[in-house]
Amino acid sequence: MPIPKNVTFVTFDVYGTLIDWETGIYEAFAKEAARDDFEIDRAQLIQLFHEISREIEGGSYELYAEVLRRTAIEIAKRLEWPLEPSRSGFLPDSVQRWKPFKETNTQLQKLSKKYKLGLLSNIDDKLLGQTRLVVTAQQVRSYKPEPAHFTECARRIGGKRGWVHVAASHYHDVVPCVKARVPVIWVNRSKQVLESSQKKPTLEVANLKEAAKALGVS
Q1: Contact call for residues 170 and 144 (beta carbons, < 8 A)
Q2: Is 28:83 a contact under the CB 8 Å cutoff?
Q3: How many CB atoms lie within 10 A of CB 60?
């Protein structure tokens, strides 16, 4: 699907696209582990986080805060860090401290002057706080890459015409967008190289500034 000539609505994934959640997750784990004089390797942690959280999200729906708690407990087990389960709330409690990427606020301000903006996020309403949103996992009782977020968003905005989605996760966002025939700009911050069999986005960019430029905003 090409980018529409007349874009009116631009939606974003939040964590990984607008918010630097990998740094936030690492800092939360490192701080909590330091209480036990235990060191956390960032690369190993992030790999485990993605692997384990996807497994948990693939089961019956539960609030994202609980997904984070369960993920923290399982990561600790695999790292042989003796974390008491009662302390696992450190991870969902850290969400409010996860920082946006340096270009996020500037580019969103620019885009908001030209388009209607929304968010499609695998998170709870409460954890998202006062951030404006369109569809959360809590509302649709499902986690991306399942199609419920996109189906509900299309319903709320009155169809797919003039809609472009912007996201950093190929797994969570690009794949379901391609299946739903929703134009998607992939913010490939991690410089992931796709295999020939993987779904291709409408457009691939390195950051939000390039995404905004592709949408005619500079």
Answers
A1: no
A2: no
A3: 6
